[in-house]
Amino acid sequence: MPRGVGRGAEPPSEEISEGPRLWVRLALLLPFTAILALFFTVPLVLMAVISLSRQSFARFEWALTFKNYVRFFSDPFYVGVLWDTLWLGFLVTAAALLLGYPLAYHLARTRTRWKPVLLVFILSPLLVGIVIRCYGWMILLADRGLINGTLIEGGWISRPLPLMYNQFGVGLALVHVFLPFMVLSLTGVIKRIDPALLEASMTLGASPARAFWEVTLPLSLPGILAGSLLVFSLAISSFVVPILLGGFKVYVLPIIVYEQILSVFDWPFGAANAFILLLISLGIITGYIKVAERALRGLV
Description:
MetI-like fold
């Protein structure tokens, strides 16, 4: 019998597939890279150039200057708006995590036949336009809305509660809008945690609470990281919700960018505001990723 013909014989080494060649991989990546460079990199570069330019009577003077950035950081109003934007993003992320983790844990572990219905309820906010969702919250939170109207007619309060046109109303609507992203990020990670690990920890004497804190929670850190980054990035860049539920009484940096570009027509300063928000958010996200990676390496 010729060598290599019998059962169990290994194929010749030269016939083993080595995967796609380098030029094939580059050809497959080229369309995506070109689209990314065209619709993401080019606008960012253009925004950076505009932020470093001068504007004189609606005309740009292409001279390198940092006066727009100096103006931003030397004005307490804009620095305060930046802080309010980041603080609002932090609060929304923390609230989404606290509300979304139990829901994601139940969704990942439950075997009830109502699980698809629960999943539909979680995804239902994504099926409705954000403007419609904001108007729904306005009906609930307005001074003459459903909540205040019910409390006043029932004699519980004499004056309407300040539920809207403040950070509470904006934050509540943002949590409702972005909660599905947190839940979906956590559900996939928690679902991959082997239940045998929890059983082993409780067999060794750990209580259910200790097993959760020392086994489930550390192993779900990748989902917490992904969901937190996604919700924080979306919250600090949100524009529609602060406009409708804040009523221009809650200022965030995207509103300032909108006003400077489309109302004041000060494109360089508006571009500087946008670029500052981008750079600071990237710095916060990078630091958060490094801290999370250190925590994950400590578990290995």
